[in-house]
Amino acid sequence: MSLIEKIKRSIDYRKWSYTKANDSWSVFKIMSEFVNGYETLSRIGPCVAIFGSARVTEDNIYYHKAVETGAKLVEKGFGVITGGGPGIMEAGNRGAHEAGGKSVGLNIVLPHEQHANQYIDPDKSINFDYFYIRKTMFTRYSQGFIAFPGGFGTLDELSEALTLMQTNKIANFPIVMFGSEFWNPLVDWFRQTLLENKMIKEFDFSIFHVVDDVDEAVRIIDDFYQSSELKPNF
Q1: Is the Cβ–Cβ distance between 212 and 180 less than 8 Å?
Q2: Would you give the distance in Å from CA 17 to the centre of its chain?
Q3: With the C-alpha atoms ordered 107, 111, 113, 117, is the resulting torsion angle positive or negative?
Q4: φ, ψ for residue 8 (rounded to 5)?
Q5: DSSP string, 157-195
Q6: How far apart are alpha carbons 52 and 163 in whole angstroms?
Q7: Residue (of 60, 43, 44) closest to 52 by Cα position
Q8: Within a 10 A sphere around the Cβ of 204, how many other Cβ atoms?
Q9: Pairing status of strand 208-211 against strand 142-147
Q10: pLDDT of 80-138, one tens digit each?
């Protein structure tokens, strides 16, 4: 081995050692986000998560439906948890805030789009650096998911909830997909591709509901808890 190759190998090893050291120390930052999330959310009480696109503007019909949904959830005794940003998240928080209910925001810093909206209760706004910790908080402390139309982030949150429920890794709770025009093509793909290729079972379609009516969405959540205990999901 030449001297140049030995030097390069030595440099690469030092970089690898430095990376491993950073990985070890990052555990403490991860722990702090979990502890902060658990301590804050465990005191808030029953809430329903509203998901959807950050890019939806106030003149969009789904924005208005999300505002209405947030308000009607409060009427049923629930608070609202969102990702804390603009668009559908803002609308859900706005509905809860204007109805006098608890309005929670689990915000995350992104290179674009994301900033905490003005309708989150000041003592219920939590910032996260890690998506997976933020998603853990949603699935642990939400008594239901209502997914409005959205992009990759919404699909990610929805898919994780469906997977965890399908595999019995979390307690059963209602999942509502609002907007049949938007969601039905995805549900058709589930049936025509996943089901036909035996990737899922017919029973899996019972995990979620597709609706177009705010009252129906809220009723699905409320009816579920007429016979189920309100508690963290795992």
Answers
A1: yes
A2: 35
A3: positive
A4: -60, -40
A5: HHHHHHHHHHTTSS----EEEE-HHHHHHHHHHIIIIII
A6: 19
A7: 60
A8: 15
A9: unpaired
A10: 999 999 999 999 999 999 999 999 999 987 666 567 899 999 999 999 989 999 999 99
